[in-house]
Amino acid sequence: MAKAGKLNYLVNWNKSLTPNLLSMRYRKNVAAFIINNNGEILTCERCDYPGCWQLPQGGIDEGESVEDALWRELMEEIGTNSAQILDALIPPLRYDWPDEIRKIRGFAGQEQFFYLLRLNDEAEIDFCTHDTQEFRSYQWLNSTEFAVTISGFKKDNYLMAMKMLTERNPGVLA
Fold first, then answer.
1. I need a surface site. Which of 54, 81, 139, 149 has the fewest CB within 10 A?
2. pTM, 2 dp
3. pLDDT in tens, 50-67
4. Rounded to an integer, what distance in angstroms lies between the CA atom of residue 32 and that of residue 43?
5. Are residues 135 and 51 in contact, defined by beta-carbon separation less than 8 angstroms?
């Protein structure tokens, strides 16, 4: 079942490509579904776009492994990397950026490696540990709440990753 869902996603994704997008590269990115002991997903509100909620995520630096980027991004964005990896989606999922972002960034979109992690009990979320604060607040949401809270061009990718992680890890996400 997971393979069929992924195949449908890839087929639909390929149909949406334009010749211009085919010539552009995708930025490598890592994103984290971080859950608590209740299986709720850490969802963070962006500082630059109040009301816009997303997962902790960020670019993978040149020469950096995907897992090293994951731990670095967690420290930069939520102030802790005290978590256990439960699963990882390999290969990555892609999404296209809107035209205005594509022009600024020079990439067609992002190629996201998704991880499922459980936050350790002693972990404390602190958005002020890095020079640039990306998030202003957070909330713990079950899968249904998460699906209706996130919006924008990342939403389809997030929902596809959540579906795949849920199928691979039954009963883990609330």
1. 139
2. 0.84
3. 999 999 999 999 999 999
4. 10
5. no
